[in-house]
Every structure is written in structure tokens, then in C-alpha cells.
Design brief:
This protein is of the alpha/beta class and about 425 residues long. It is about 40% helix and about 20% strand.
């Protein structure tokens, strides 16, 4: 799994590389820019014609990364121009060094320091087939107004294919929120590690495809870097699966009980059953009310069905719960009193793995902490609206800080929580 770092953790990682590993900051900047240029060159070389590239540099170290990319692409034969949204004299050390190096190989750049200079930017933008966003990096923590906002709005309005360096300018590195406005990138090349803000719903509309460029030091310099999260990748999941024995049979591949569906919503139960089978379960039973079970019987192929007797839950569900390796409950189940009694009975009595989704979660709206008393191993799978109901807040508040919302839910429910989204967050 790949580490995912906060703004502060990334600063600490860079500082360790510079002070303890004696790798100068200008070398880290060079490596980052070269890595981004490598990725960009492959992307642009796949096009039928060489695309003019415009690198839009900001007044900080992200701008320095941009000047490295400009120089590296020019060395590879690309037509490259650059714009500095700021004053050359105020660039910090390493960024200024690379701006001078860009000039040293014959590169030039306009300094856009006031609104009246935006005309020069517009001209440069009109000639570009690709834009590199090197305005602001992970350190940005303020609202973008005035000239920076105007530059980003013009960039977005141009409709030019765009690559962002480290993070799209205007996106917060910690929670993915917008600082007023943000660059809409088609590709984001982040440096060394993924940042928290990149893996949020809000940022997903701006990042495009994500890639990581190494900066010339190991990911685990000194020791494992302090991290806020980890990115689960395909190989991490694949390593947890093994081939079945040649003499395996359906009963040895796992039993799943899905308590789902109601009249008019039997499709939800069918999807749960199909999902369980595709995930590898050997035996899947769909449990529902008499009316829903009858409708399911007409459509199931591999799954079995079971009728839930609302007046005798222990008899109609007790045995099925005891022989199941995993129980999934909630989709399409309903929100009436009968469904509530089923949900509470299962939560309070099942001692194994129990996945709560959809209606089963809504039954615990505003009383999430009650789930901490459940005897089983609970896994909650809410979308932002459902998690908001559980926590007594709105979906927008959940999305403003998905990481904090998941952490709070884990603390209250003492359960594993999967918050759905473009990047599903799992807290345990």
C-alpha cells in the first residue's frame, strides 16, 4: 500500500531528505521536475504532432518545479514557453535558481504581476496545445483572489489539455477543498507521495488522472514516513487471494446471508447476491419477507431464498445467522417498523462479520454509538448522505472533511467504516 501524506507530513519528509540525508532542496526539485517531464513527454509523444507547451509558473517552489519541467521538455525537443505569475526578484532560492537555468538555456518568460499584464498571458495561452500548471503547490492554505484567480479562470476557460504539478493549483492538500477556484487538470503528477486532498470527492473533478513522480530518495528514508492514510492498490488485494483447492466445493468457499429487499425493491437483494457470488462466495442465501422472497424465487439462479417471519425472528433467522460466515444487511430492506425490528435483532444477536448498508444504516441515524455494543464484527458502508445521517450532520459537511468524518464514525461505532466515493475511504 502506498503512503498518503498530509501537507505537514510531506514538509517533514522533504526536510528529512534535505537535513538528515544531505540531499539539497534544489536536487529534489530537479528530480521532481524531471520525473514530471518524463511522464509528460510520454503523453505528448503519443500525439501525431509535437504540441506547443506553456508552463505557467507561480511565485513559490511549485514555480521552480515548473521551470525544471520547461527546461527538461525543451531538452527533449519540445516547443516550450513559460510565464511567471509573479516577480522574478521575489522567487525563493531554489525556484530562482531554476528560473535562471531556464533563461540560461535560452528560455524566456513574461512576468505577469498585474491585471494589465494578463494580455501577455492570454496571447501565450492561445498558442499552447498543452499547459503545465505550476502556480501553487501543496503549501497553499488561503483563498485565491485577484490576479491568481484571474489567471486560473483564464486557464480553465481556454479548454487546453492541462497537467498539474504536485496538486492542481487551488486545491487544499489536506482536505481537497477549493480555495475559491482551482485548475481543472487532465493529469496531475504529484511528487514522492500521494497527498490526502488528491483522494477526495471534491478534488476528483480537478485532478484528472493521477501519477506519482519520484524525487530521488527512497519512499522510506530513515524509517517509514509518518502517514495519514494508505492507498490500497490492485496488487495489495490480489496478494490476499489464493487459488482454491482442486477438491473445493461450494460449502467450503464461504456462506453469505443477505438480508435485503422488500416488495418493489427486490432488485437490491439480487444485486447483493450477485455481488457476493462474483466475490467468490460458495453459498448465498437471500432473506426477505414472504412477499419479497416469493418475488425473488422467480428470478434467482444460484442464490437460495429464506422467508423472514417478523413474529418469530429467532426461528426464521437464528439458524441462518449461526451458519453464515458473513451477513450483509440493508439494501432495499425498507424503513418501516418491521424492517427496524429485523435490523436491531440481527445487530444485537449476530456474533460474526456483519456488513450494514443502505436502509440498515438509516435505522441507526443519529444513534451511531449504539452500534458499539454489537457483539459482531461490524462493517459499515455508507455514502456521504448516509454517513451524515449517522453523525447528525449534512452530506456537504461530510464531504468537506471526509477523513475526519470517517474517523469520527469509527470512534463512535467501534467498527470498520467504508465511506463511498471516487476514492472509498476505509477506517478501522
Amino acid at each position: 500500500m502506498r503512503p498518503v501524506l498530509s501537507r505537514e507530513q510531506m514538509r517533514a519528509f522533504d526536510a528529512y531528505a534535505i537535513t538528515r540525508c544531505a540531499v539539497p532542496g534544489v536536487v529534489l526539485m530537479e528530480n521532481a521536475g524531471r520525473g514530471a517531464a518524463d511522464l509528460l513527454a510520454r503523453e505528448l509523444s503519443a500525439r501525431p504532432e509535437r504540441t506547443p507547451v506553456l508552463v505557467v509558473c507561480g511565485p513559490g517552489n511549485n514555480g521552480g518545479d515548473g521551470f525544471v519541467v520547461a527546461r527538461q521538455l525543451k531538452a527533449r525537443g519540445f516547443a516550450v514557453s513559460a510565464v511567471l505569475c509573479g516577480a522574478f526578484d521575489t522567487l525563493p532560492g531554489d525556484a530562482r535558481t531554476n528560473a535562471e537555468a531556464w533563461r540560461g538555456i535560452g528560455g524566456a518568460f513574461d512576468e505577469v504581476t498585474a491585471a494589465e499584464r494578463l494580455e501577455a498571458f492570454d496571447i501565450a495561452l492561445s498558442r499552447a496545445g498543452c499547459v503545465v500548471d505550476a502556480l501553487y503547490g501543496t503549501g497553499l492554505d488561503r483563498e485565491l483572489v485577484g490576479l491568481p484567480r484571474a489567471v486560473i479562470e483564464r486557464l480553465n476557460g481556454a479548454g487546453v489539455w492541462t497537467c498539474a504539478l504536485d496538486i492542481p493549483s487551488g486545491i487544499d492538500a489536506n482536505d481537497g477543498s477549493l480555495h475559491g477556484v482551482a485548475v481543472r487538470a487532465d493529469l496531475t503528477v504529484t511528487f514522492a507521495h500521494y497527498k490526502l486532498g488528491l483522494l477526495t470527492s471534491a478534488a476528483s473533478a480537478f485532478t484528472g488522472r493521477l501519477a506519482v513522480a519520484h524525487i530521488g530518495v527512497p519512499e522510506t528514508i530513515g524509517s517509514e514516513p509518518e502517514r495519514s492514510a494508505e492507498l490500497l492498490e490492485t496488487m495489495d488485494v490480489a496478494l490476499r487471494f489464493s487459488c482454491r483447492a482442486r477438491d473445493a466445493h461450494k460449502a467450503s468457499a464461504g456462506r453469505v446471508l443477505a438480508i435485503a429487499g422488500s416488495p418493489g425493491k427486490t432488485g437490491a437483494a439480487l444485486l447483493v447476491g450477485r455481488g457476493a457470488l462474483r466475490a467468490g462466495a460458495g453459498l448465498v442465501t437471500l432473506a426477505a419477507s414472504q412477499a419479497a422472497a416469493s418475488a425473488l424465487d422467480a428470478r434467482v439462479l444460484e442464490e437460495m431464498t429464506r422467508v423472514i417471519d417478523g413474529d418469530d425472528l429467532e426461528t426464521s433467522l437464528g439458524e441462518a445467522l449461526s451458519v453464515s460466515d458473513c451477513v450483509a444487511m440493508g439494501p432495499g430492506l425498507g424503513l418501516d417498523d418491521a424492517a427496524r425490528r429485523v435490523v436491531e435483532y440481527v445487530v444485537q444477536s449476530h456474533q460474526g462479520a456483519l456488513v450494514l448498508d443502505a436502509d440498515a444504516l438509516t435505522h441507526y441515524a443519529g444513534r451511531l454509538a449504539e452500534l458499539s455494543r454489537a457483539p459482531g464484527q461490524l462493517i459499515l458502508t455508507p455514502h456521504p448522505g448516509e454517513l451524515g445521517r449517522l453523525l447528525g450532520i449534512g452530506a456537504r459537511e461530510v464531504e468537506r472533511d471526509r477523513f475526519a468524518a470517517v474517523a469520527r464514525a469509527v470512534e463512535l461505532a467501534q467498527a470498520t467504516v467504508l465511506l463511498k466515493g471516487p476514492y472509498t475511504l476505509t477506517g478501522a
